[in-house]
Amino acid sequence: MAGQADRWTGAFFVALAAVLYFHVIPTYVETVDYGWVHPRTIPNAVAIIVAVCGVAQIIGPAPVTVPPARQLARAGLFFALIVAGLTLTAFLGFKIVAPLLALAIMLAIGERRPGWLAAGVIGMPLAIWLFVAFLLGRPLP
Amino acid sequence: MVDLATILAGFADAFTPFNLAFVLFGVIVGQFVGAVPGIGPIMAMAIAIPFTFGLDTLPAIAFLVGVNKGGLVGGAVPAVLMNTPGTPDAAATALDGFPLARKGKPLKATKMALFSSVTGDTVSDIVLITVSAPLAVLALRMGPVEVFALIIFAFSIIAGLIGNSVAKGVIAAALGLLCASVGSDPEHYTPRLIFGHFELYDGLPLASVAIGMLAVSEILRRLSETRGRMRATVEIPKTQDAADTRVSFAEYWACRFTLLRGATIGTILGALPGIGSTAAAFMSYAATKHASREPESFGKGNIQGIAAAESANSAVVGANLIPLLTLGIPGSVGAALIISAFMIHGVQPGPLLFEQQGRLIYGLFGAMIMANVLNLFVGQIGLRLWVRVVSAPESFVFASALLLCIVGVSMATGGLFGVAVMLIFAGIGYLMTSFGYSVVIFIIAFFLGPRFEISLSQSLALTNGKPAALLDHPIALALLVLALVCLIWFGLKARRLARAA
């Protein structure tokens, strides 16, 4: 059905709004009972608006073309790869991780040509180092 | 009143080869760093200020103005060619620029962005040079109540960007507001939704959110679509019609009202401190889309969309200097950096500036005009270079763009925490786009959110919570009525289109 995905996302937003309103906002926003706009005013208003719109989406879904599950999974894999790269950067530094991350991404896409692999794995990290660390004198992550 | 001799002497100072060389250098640096996601002209200016200590005042300021102006043009290039805005200001340019580039017309799209940027910037500079003083007085009358009404008006214009589902558009805006509320609340300064991360006390960094949602999420989408077949990032036909590689005068002239509208919106918003060029670009885009006879063609490579966004975001730069030069109030971070450069060189911006430093100010105006002209020439060369870059395979371009995003955001936010935030928003942006929620509306709400809350709080305090007090604020009242008219007009138009469909 064309609007099925929209119904599911509507339900997700209703659930998200409920979690926000009943758990997240009371726990992570302080209570202040003076002044005009309290710290909770905007987040609570947002939660209510999201819930109402989520219900509206469940009742009247709009047709939406969602990418195939396989493509979503591939995006998830690339995302995990980048997160792993960032985690490694925290320990080993950008200078070591950048070529490895570039290599992993290029190989995962299917790039096998040595020239382009060299450009992405050696050329670009070197250019970034030259520009940021050498020319601008700023530390790399 | 500054006499003609001082004005001419000022312009003559600006046009000396020495000063022109600094403007040119600034424009080149600005265009280059503007094109690198996350770095942008503001950071380039911040880094460049210490290098101007040894210079005279005029070349130093002219150089910084060149960096600022060049950066806005540079930011549009990757937005158009890779859907990866170099600066948040250029996000609106990507909406139509990238689809046009993907149709095999990258040079046409980037040239239109360049011409529109220079046009908007020049119009705004002319306004600055001719009527900056009265405009600054008008800007001073904009108190918190008027700014609140202006933000409501901005939201009503941007509602025009909501697509076929109002619920989805409102959810996107609400989530943007929710993310904008992270950090200390503006009235009581208590921490809000920071989950123990004190890095979030000042809120989520705009660079992380904007680059994550717009650039990295697009990289993720393109990576997930690539299946072993190596292709160019932007396919450029080998035999291309000359009309597809240039913007004809007829095409430019057809955009004259769009350019003028964009420049007007950019100039007005630029004269008001704190609103910024991102909001101006999206407001202009939304207004143009609604004024168009073929709104369905927007987002699919309509050249008017590029003209609307670029003319508005560039017009903000000149107008930002209106409150700075006349009142000593910086209208943006870029203007604040220029004010600091003024003060470092012993010049005190404010109402007496024109009387005491008339020659310097008109020299600066001359440098600004020259920066626009040089932007045009440097841009023409730079664009060809960038078009060559994006004809490289996706594997190379996306891996490189990702590394640049990581480094740029890390520099902008001062560490890996900002990069982690960028990745989280990349994931959110990817999912939102995949399920039909507008990331553009999210970004705008996120950008305007803090200003909205502060002005709401101040307005309620000033009016004692009584709506009748709005009668004492005729500008605010007029803006609120305009907002209502816009919403009704958009609603009727959407209904008419739905019926026609």
Contiguous helical run count of chain B: 20
Q: Write down the overall geometry of chain A.
A: flat
Helix content of chain A: over 70%
Distance between the termini of chain A: 47 Å
Integer average pLDDT of chain B: 83
Main β-sheet, spatial strand arrangement of chain B:
1-2
| Quaternary status | heterodimer
List keywords for this structure.
heterodimer, A: 141 residues, mainly alpha, 2 domains, 5 helices, 75% helix, flat, B: 501 residues, two-stranded antiparallel sheet, 2 strands, 72% helix, 1% strand, globular
Show the helix and strand layout.
The complex is a heterodimer of chains A (141) and B (501).
Chain A: H1 4-28, H2 41-59, H3 69-92, H4 94-109, H5 114-135
Helix pairs in contact in A: 1-2, 3-4, 4-5
Chain B: H1 4-14, H2 17-34, H3 40-48, H4 57-82, H5 91-102, H6 106-140, H7 144-158, H8 166-180, E1 183-184, E2 191-192, H9 206-225, H10 249-254, H11 256-271, H12 277-291, H13 303-327, H14 333-344, H15 353-356, H16 358-389, H17 394-413, H18 416-434, H19 439-463, H20 474-500
Antiparallel strand pairs in B: 1-2
Helix pairs in contact in B: 1-16, 2-4, 2-16, 3-4, 3-14, 4-5, 4-6, 4-13, 4-14, 4-16, 5-6, 5-13, 6-11, 6-13, 6-16, 7-19, 7-20, 8-19, 9-17, 9-18, 9-19, 11-12, 11-13, 12-13, 13-14, 17-18
Describe this structure in words.
The complex is a heterodimer of chains A (141) and B (501). Chain A is an all-alpha fold and 141 residues long. Chain A has 2 domains: 4-59; 69-135, no CATH class. Helices cover 75% and strands 0% of the residues of chain A. Chain A contains 5 helices and no strands. Chain A has helices spanning 4-28, 41-59, 69-92, 94-109, 114-135. Chain B is an all-alpha fold. Chain B has one domain (4-500). In chain B, 72% of the residues lie in helices and 1% in strands. Chain B has helices spanning 4-14, 17-34, 40-48, 57-82, 91-102, 106-140, 144-158, 166-180, 206-225, 249-254, 256-271, 277-291, 303-327, 333-344, 353-356, 358-389, 394-413, 416-434, 439-463, 474-500; strands at residues 183-184, 191-192. Chain B has a two-stranded antiparallel ribbon with strand order 1-2. In chain B, β1 and β2 (191-192) form a beta hairpin. Chain B is globular, with a radius of gyration of 22 Å. Chain B starts with a helix and ends with a helix. The model of chain B has no long low-confidence stretch (mean pLDDT 83). Chains A and B meet through α1, α2, α3, α4 and α5 of A and α8, β2, α9, α17 and α18 of B.
